[in-house]
Amino acid sequence: MDGMNHDHGSMSPPMSMNNTNNTGTMMHHHNMMHMTFFWGKNSEILFSGWPGTRSGMYALALIVVFVLAVLVEWLSHCKLMKPDANHVAAGLIQTLLHAIRVGLAFLVMLALMSFNGGVFLVAVAGHTFGFFIFGSRVFNKSSPPPKTSDLPPMSC
To answer: What angle do CA 76, 78, 80 make, to 5 degrees?
Structure first.
């Protein structure tokens, strides 16, 4: 057990010759990576150094995650193609929309991997709001059960 890092919640890269300063001494880098949920605005979401510690950037990051989650729900429930569309063209459009939807869903998932409680709450809120607007019966004008999307449902 000697020599093991018992600092739960942080991971540091191994020491190497690349981690030396001008005097030839080793520098020790501490990169904080949370492995449990935490509350706070100082975190990295999706990109290195973003949102940082500047005021308002954390709120912008939360808005971006919220919008991404709403877009995933919109793409999951939208009907963009006409029923009489060319099958090949419709298949290509469906494939492109599916790729965009999966890519956006993966971005939301990667944002959640920051383990920030605020990011978790806005991701759930974005999916909830998106489903309420695009997937629920509240804004559905037709009485028979319509086809809700051009894309197949995402399976877990």
So the answer is: 135
